[in-house]
């Protein structure tokens, strides 16, 4: 019996040893699986859409210029250009918008070679930014809209920059005629779609000074150095509904822009005329009926 027990025990030990040896290859095969998983993860990360070659419409269509800062106390003693427009100070909401935009531009320094962007400098016209409802141009009509009047600020700057002989980078005319500057001499702005931009090609750093008070809006440009902008002349001619503005310096033209304006919609007037005609016809008919009866 003892011999049989020993033989059975030996057999169990041998079987256990063989089972242990058979389990080792299974553990070794798991290592390549882990390596494969790691490789797959790395490859997927590299080929996602968020790589360096991806482009977005916001960055490809709009250029962000270097930010400009204010300088209240710096010495800019040479006034090289100035221009004044007028507004109705009794229109309180529009006046508020003018003063709000002017406060953003006043004392802004434009270094030599840098670009001034109206939208970047003034910012988005919102209620939280202090803007109120006033008349704006929309779909061929003057209607109430947030920030109305701000275009007078950009147009006044445009007229000043023209006289300073600086380079005009971006300028858009209104779709309807405005009265605060000569036709062809305006520069409309609209947040994120239409901007007014000019580049400081005057020859030194300049500062913009603006004030808005008692119906007068004035923009002046002061230079750091005593520069000569030349004999600047602005001329506007009209032909066939187009207004052509040209700038000549020392007898040579260096800027030209064309503006066309639409006629304001007159839907309300047309409706009033039609209704008055109908009333007249009815009145006439009644009178003639009475005459027949008599």
Going across the biggest sheet, name each strand in turn. 1-9-8-2
One letter per element, helices H and strands E, the order comes to HHEHEEHEEHEEEEEEEH
Secondary structure: helix percent? 25-40%
| Ends distance | 152 Å
Number of alpha- plus pi-helical segments: 6
Decide which structural class fits the backbone. Answer: alpha+beta
Point out poorly predicted stretches. 23-33, 35-61, 268-294
Mean pLDDT: 80
Q: What's the overall geometry?
A: extended
Descriptive keywords:
single chain, 294 residues, alpha+beta, 4-stranded antiparallel β-sheet, 6 helices, 37% helix, disordered C terminus
Description:
This protein is an alpha+beta fold and 294 residues long. It is 37% helix and 26% strand. It contains six helices and twelve strands. The strands form four sheets. Strands 1-9-8-2 form a four-stranded antiparallel sheet. Strand 10 and strand 11 form a beta hairpin. The protein is extended, with a radius of gyration of 38 Å. It starts with a helix and ends with a helix.
Short description:
The chain has 294 residues and is α+β, with helices and mostly antiparallel strands. The protein has 6 helices and 12 strands. Strand 8 (206-213) and strand 9 (216-223) form a beta hairpin.
Topology of helices and strands:
Blueprint: H1 2-46, H2 57-61, E1 78-86, H3 92-105, E2 108-110, E3 115-117, H4 118-122, E4 133-138, E5 141-146, H5 150-163, E6 167-170, E7 197-199, E8 206-213, E9 216-223, E10 232-239, E11 242-249, E12 252-260, H6 267-293
Antiparallel strand pairs: 1-9, 2-8, 3-7, 4-5, 6-7, 8-9, 10-11, 11-12
